[in-house]
Structure formats: structure tokens, C-alpha cells
Write a structure and sequence with these properties.
With 297 residues, the chain is α+β, with helices and mostly antiparallel strands. Helix content is 33%, strand content 23%. The structure holds flavin-adenine dinucleotide. The site of flavin-adenine dinucleotide has 30 residues, from strand 2, helix 2, helix 7 and strand 10.
């Protein structure tokens, strides 16, 4: 019988002194080295034999990757190596970006959240990543270090497929920056898992809503869906319906149906594709209703 868990291979642990050193090393060893932070995704891949590497490069703690900074004029920057528990307990995040807190709290267990980082959750590029939806609806942009210099990558165009992003060898995500959130916004993340803790989402629905005088309906809703497409999915048609038509239960149901129609899920060990589609419709309706009830008040 084939051993499904061959165990961790021997590899070298590299601890660069600077981001430049890390980027250079990663380029020199393209194909045999990867950056890591918490390691909660990397070590599983290595253990299962999905990756065959010679080097793991620890980029945690380099140049501000552990910091959280909030500025009331410019918004929030969270270092890529900040673990989920720190996000859950940070007063500025709880106060100004509560949807990030809510999403981070749903990641696995307390123990895992003390290692799992927000940067790792994003760079792992799993369509099921729990914090990605909140980062998208808050308009997050990634700060990326490379040997050519620094650049910003909007999350909207970052994901290319399961485990695939626009990052090139030597690119290191250092932090994620968010603009100030819309005034009076309300957020909701509903995660459907096989159990209450420590499992990836069968589906996940993130909704952020706020009063908006530029929208015909008087409200804007941002939506991101997890585990229903090769990349985290923004159902644009559903968002448009909610911006254009006067809000009521029927319009919310119409938008939830549009969200369901935009999904292209797969069958896997967690669920059938069909179940995922129906749960997206039901949970999108629930999340939109919860948010709308609160912003109307
Ligand atoms: C038991 C278990 C339960 C889990 N449950 C959940 C869950 O409920 N929800 C969920 O969303 N996830 C879950 N995960 C997945 C994982 O914990 C998260 O995705 C976590 O946030 C990854 O962060 P990390 O720092 O450990 O990433 P790492 O393993 O360090 O890295 C992940 C990926 O990102 C790349 N990377 C890391 N840092 C950088 C960087 N700075 N720049 C560029 N690329 C980088 C790595 O090369 C790798 O490809 C679970 C994992 C386990 C083992």
C-alpha cells in the first residue's frame, strides 16, 4: 500500500538577514526553495510529498512583517507574518475592521491561529482561505518586495488559480494595506465547515455593506465567496443587483441566486459541487439579510 504521508523530507532551513538577501536566495534556488512564515501550509505539502524542496526560507520578522499599524487618515497595514490570534485581539482591527477579526477567528483552532499568518493565508492562494474574502472586500493591496524594488499588488488581480498567484520567484509579500473602511459599514462572514473548528470551508460567504448615496439603491454591498471557484470569487452581478434595485427580501434573494449562478465549484472530500452551489445561495441570502438589517438601523 502507498503511504499517503511519506513524512517530512530533510531540507535546509535558511534564515536570511534581510529581504534582499531572501529574494536573492529564492531566485538563485528557483524550484528548490520557497519562502515561509507560519509553515502550517508548507509543512503539510512537504509531509505529503506534494513539494520537493531543498530549502525553506524563513521570511518572518524581516523588515516590519510582524507589525500592525493603524493611521486614522490612511488606514491599516498588517505585516504579512502577523498571526491570526494577533489579528483577533488587536483593538484597532476590532474597532475599525471588525470583519477581519471575524474572519481570522474562524481559521482552524486557537493553537493553529498562533502560527498561521495572514500573509501565508493569502499567498497559499487556496480558494478556501478564510481571511481572503475580508481582505478583498476591504480593498486590500499587498506590499511586495523583489530585487527590482517594491510594488503594490491589488488582491482583485492577485490570484491565478488554486495555489497560483502573480508572484514571481524572489517576490516576498511584506504586508497588506487597507484604505479606511466606508463609514457605518457592517460585515459578516459565514463559514460552513464539516465541524466547528480546524477544517477548511466547504463554502464561505463574506459580505460588507454600507450606505452609499452614489448607488441607486442607497447601499453598496461587496461580496466574496470561498471554495466555489479556482480563485476567491467576487460575484459582480450580485453586487450590481444590490446597487441598482431598491432593497427588499426579493432583491436580496435575486442577488443570492446570481451569486450561486456565478460559482463553478468542484466535488471533493468536503462536499459535492451541487451542495456548495445551493449553500452559496442560502448563506449569501443570510449574510446579506443580516448586514442589511444592521445598516438600515
Ligand atoms: C490543521 C490545519 C487546519 C487549517 N484550517 C484552516 C482554516 O480553517 N482556514 C484557513 O483559511 N486555512 C486553514 N489552514 C491552512 C493554513 O493554516 C492557513 O492558510 C495559514 O494562514 C497559512 O499561513 P502560514 O503562515 O502558516 O503559511 P506558510 O505555510 O508559511 O506559507 C503558505 C504559502 O505562502 C507562501 N508564503 C509564505 N509567506 C510568504 C511571503 N511572505 N511572501 C510570499 N509567499 C509566501 C509559502 O511559500 C506557501 O506557499 C489549516 C491548516 C492546517 C494544517
Amino acid at each position: 500500500m502507498i503511504n499517503p504521508h511519506p513524512g517530512l523530507p530533510e531540507l535546509e532551513y535558511v534564515m536570511p538577514a534581510s529581504l534582499d538577501e531572501a529574494s536573492k536566495f529564492l531566485i538563485e534556488h528557483t524550484g528548490e526553495a520557497k519562502p515561509f512564515m507560519g509553515g502550517t501550509d508548507c509543512f503539510v505539502r512537504l509531509r505529503d510529498g506534494a513539494w520537493n524542496l531543498k530549502y525553506l526560507v524563513n521570511v518572518k520578522g524581516l523588515d516590519g512583517t510582524n507589525e500592525i499599524r493603524f493611521d486614522p487618515k490612511n488606514g491599516l497595514t498588517i505585516g504579512a507574518a502577523v498571526p491570526m490570534n494577533k489579528i483577533v485581539s488587536h483593538p484597532d482591527i476590532n474597532k475599525h475592521y471588525p470583519l477581519l477579526t471575524e474572519a481570522a477567528r474562524t481559521v482552524a483552532s486557537y493553537q493553529l491561529r498562533s502560527r498561521a499568518t495572514i500573509g501565508g493565508n493569502i499567498c497559499n492562494a487556496s480558494p478556501a482561505g478564510d481571511t481572503i474574502g475580508a481582505c478583498i472586500v476591504y480593498g486590500g493591496k499587498l506590499n511586495v518586495h523583489s530585487i527590482k524594488g517594491k510594488r503594490l499588488e491589488p488582491l482583485a488581480s492577485f490570484f491565478k488559480g488554486p495555489g497560483k498567484t502573480v508572484l514571481e520567484p524572489g517576490d516576498i509579500v511584506t504586508s497588506i494595506s487597507f484604505p479606511l473602511p466606508p463609514p457605518n459599514h457592517v460585515g459578516r462572514y459565514i463559514k460552513l465547515g464539516r465541524n466547528k473548528i480546524s477544517d477548511l470551508a466547504i463554502v464561505g460567504v463574506t459580505v460588507l455593506g454600507y450606505p452609499d448615496s452614489n448607488a441607486k439603491s442607497g447601499y453598496t454591498f461587496k461580496i466574496a465567496l470561498a471554495s466555489v471557484a479556482p480563485v476567491p470569487l467576487v460575484p459582480l452581478k450580485a453586487e450590481q443587483i444590490l446597487a441598482d434595485k431598491p432593497l427588499n427580501e426579493n432583491i436580496i434573494s435575486e442577488a443570492a441566486q446570481a451569486a450561486m449562478d456565478s460559482c463553478t465549484p468542484i466535488d471533493d472530500v468536503r462536499s459535492s459541487a451541487r451542495y456548495r452551489k445551493y449553500m452559496i445561495r442560502n448563506l449569501t441570502r443570510q449574510a446579506l439579510t443580516d448586514v442589511w438589517q444592521k445598516i438600515k438601523k
